[in-house]
Amino acid sequence: MAHRPLTLQELKALRYVRNYIVHFRHSPSVREVQRDLGYSSPRSAAKLLTQLEELGLLKRRANKQLQVLQGLPEDRAHARTILVPLVGSAPCGSPLLAEQNIEAMIPVSVSIARPPARYFILRANGDSMNLAGIADGDLVLVRQQSSAEEGDRVVALIDDEATIKVFRRSADAVALVPRSKNSRHLPIYLTTNFQIQGVVKATLPGWTGN
């Protein structure tokens, strides 16, 4: 946790890293930080990133990618927002909301992320829901819950992999149904071996990955 106000350069670097992760699905290299923020050498950029790690604002994941652990000062200035974790693709066997899967904290208005419910943000992969308003790379706001109603857009874990589909139920099975222009996507019929992680509440405008 930061114990002093950030310098202007630290703030610019933190903002750049978070926005880069959101838009490009991975953190920037030291040379990209140097180039895009105008530092004189890679060493200068690396030193600044190390300072942000020492302040508890950035962390290196096991795969060497950077995590943004806190919001920016301007996020906290808006009383009507809460910080919601952006979750990357969950590795097989790793819980979806495990700390190592959180890429950054994103400010979201309490008008759509309504406390006391808990939320996370997931990056959609593929085109299986493009007729339901969710395109490849979009960030979707998900309310955490383990159950769903007929027709809800849900995030489900199937064999430890997260998928976004429309929830349908019959007397004997559950169907996770795509809504896509691409006819190769077919419903997934299940009785066991899946867990609902939450219900999609919104696609976040301005935070799309396209």
Present the secondary structure layout.
Elements: H1 8-24, H2 30-37, H3 42-54, E1 58-60, E2 66-68, H4 73-76, E3 81-87, E4 102-109, E5 119-123, E6 139-144, E7 153-158, E8 161-169, E9 174-177, E10 188-190, E11 194-203
Parallel strand pairs: 3-5
Antiparallel strand pairs: 1-2, 3-4, 5-6, 6-11, 7-8, 7-11, 8-9, 9-10
Defining key terms:
alpha+beta, 4 helices, 210 residues, 2 domains, 9-stranded mixed β-sheet, two-stranded antiparallel ribbon, Umud Fragment, subunit A, Arc Repressor Mutant, subunit A
Walkthrough of the structure:
This protein has helices at 8-24, 30-37, 42-54, 73-76, and strands at residues 58-60, 66-68, 81-87, 102-109, 119-123, 139-144, 153-158, 161-169, 174-177, 188-190, 194-203. It has 210 residues and is α+β, with helices and mostly antiparallel strands. The strands form 2 sheets. A 9-stranded mixed β-sheet has the order 4-3-5-6-11-7-8-9-10. It has 2 domains: 8-61, Arc Repressor Mutant, subunit A (Orthogonal Bundle); 78-203, Ribbon (Umud Fragment, subunit A), CATH 2.10.109.10. Helices cover 20% and strands 30% of the residues. α1 (8-24) packs across α3 (42-54) and α2 (30-37) packs across α3 (42-54). It contains 4 helices and 11 strands; from the N terminus they run αααββαβββββββββ. The model has no long low-confidence stretch (mean pLDDT 86). It is elongated and about 65 Å long. A hairpin with a 5-residue loop joins β1 (58-60) and β2. The longest helix is centred in the first third of the chain and has 17 residues, at 8-24.
